[in-house]
Design brief:
Helix 1 packs antiparallel against helix 3, helix 2 runs antiparallel to helix 3 and helix 5 packs antiparallel against helix 7. Strand 1 and strand 2 form a beta hairpin. The longest helix is centred in the N-terminal third of the chain and has 23 residues. Strands 2-1-3 form a 3-stranded antiparallel β-sheet, sandwiched between helices. By secondary structure, the protein is mostly helical. The two termini are 32 Å apart. The mean pLDDT is 96. Bound molecules: manganese (II) ion. The site of manganese (II) ion has 7 residues, from helix 1.
Amino acid sequence: MSNFMPALPYAPDALAPVISRETIDFHYGKHLQTYANNLEKLIRGTALEGKSVEEIVVDAPEGAVYNNAGQVMNHQLYFLQFTPEPRTGKPEGRLATLIVRDFGSVEEMQRKMNEACTALFGSGWVWLCLNDGGRLEVASFPNGDTPLRHGKLPLLGFDVWEHAYYLDFQNRRADHVANLWKIVDWDVVAGRLGD
Ligand code: MN
């Protein structure tokens, strides 16, 4: 297994029916595995070999290396942010305070994320992130682009490539995204804020 593959903290069928085992098998087992394999090959023998994916995402030249590194990092964060049994159904502590400060309410932040997912044309990602001014924002990125490349700390990411939802929701991206909120592990998301 590639060093870039995160170990899933849940069984492959545990997120069903929001994310089915079949989707995990393809999305994690095929799509992410391919990005990880590609990245390993592309950096072998280069100055980027041995660096963390976060370093590679910031330093990589545009093109294949950045495309694959971005997708590796995006998917690592994505697969680790879900849980079949959320301890809380909502953000708590400092994260909740920041969300209310910058969006007005958790519901408004969720509405903005949902809206951005629907509005993103084609393939890409929508992130709740902390910008370099220290404020939370919802930001959309095309294809494999990642917030870190743009000085934003990624906290919670929704993958709106069709491969993320087509087996379970076909063309209904909005339904898929609405269901994702049920499996968000807010402890993991809050941990990404750091201290
Ligand atoms: Mn994906």
